[in-house]
Amino acid sequence: MEGLICGPNDEDSHPPPTSLVKRLFKQMKTATQELTKEIVDLGQKKVEIETELDLITTFQFGILQEVAEVKQATGTNPR
Predict the structure, then answer these.
(1) Which of 1, 52, 61, 76 could bridge to 71 as Cys pair (CB 3.0-4.6 Å)?
(2) Given CA atoms 5, 9, 10, 12 in this order, what sign does their dihedral have?
């Protein structure tokens, strides 16, 4: 026996129709699947961004190293 969704003195005290419950569960399942896919996509995007940041950091380090070598070769004091 299904429980009441409203109090004993309320007008509508009947449980929702089974078809409505099934439809709502289907919508919840679909929304959950879509959200899961979005989370996976965001995880992949995060990895891509981290890889790009690593590349930028590596290039920046290389450039700073070259600048230091040029300054040392020309006798310019690094700041």
Answers:
(1) 76
(2) positive
Tell the residue number behind the tokens 């009441």, with chain if given.
4
Scan for tokens 């700041």, then name that residue: 79
What phi and psi, each to the nearest 5 degrees, are found at residue 70? -65, -45
- What Rg do the C-alpha atoms of the chain give, in angstroms? 31
Instruction: Give CA angle at 28 (22, 31), nearest 5°.
Output: 140
Q: H or E element: which one contains 31?
A: helix 18-74
Q: What is the pTM of this model?
A: 0.56
DSSP-derived secondary structure letter, 8: T
In tens, the pLDDT along 66-79 reads 999 999 999 876 55
